[in-house]
Please model this.
Amino acid sequence: MNTAEIERMRVLEERHFWFRARRRGLRPWLAGALARAPQGPVLDLGAGTGSNLGLLTELAGDRRVLGIDSSPVALSHCQVASHGTDLLRADALEPPFQDSTLAVITALDVLEHLKDDDLALAQISRCLLPGGELIATVPAHPALFGNHDRALGHHKRYERNELDRKLEAQGLEIIDSRPFNTLLLPAVSFWRRARRGFQEGELLTSDVRQLPWILNEFLGTIMALDQSLPRNWTEFSGLSWWVHARLRT
Model:
């Protein structure tokens, strides 16, 4: 992601409906992981501008909270948002941690930015303590890949259960795996497919942008409804996949 996109995301992440919904959905997953995981530090892998570090710090109790990112621009914003988190500039493919030292790792919309996600997952497995837990989110449906993804520096979108298989190959067992943002999938799919008709020569910009207050609140209400629906209503598909896994002991 280039500097302009990082700066734009920093402004959006606090109030934009999608980021608010993601933090709301992550809260119970993180709370459960922190309650079960062995004692040890918590890492936000690819911390970006720090929008999730406040939630991690709130839930982590007396655990040490760490954040790494390869972008100095992103980390400069994390220093404001981190509330005492230890920040390191590092590559997700070469995290500077010893084997079996981390209790919980989050990789929230990070893996799609990496050319070698298998290597990143191997590093996550290496760094986790036995019984340590990972929470990861990735964008769904390769058919939707377009300028939105290119603007954000994505290399791919993921098929259903693709990330689950990759994690199992690295010695992790799946605790939970589900779609996220199901109700908005038809509208976003239509827009992304229609947009391809005029992408040639178009500036690379993501679909995440500042919205009028009333539209932002309306879409936030849809996301809240999405998250309150019975799971079997939203099991089939969404715009993202969420996976919660544990390193086998």
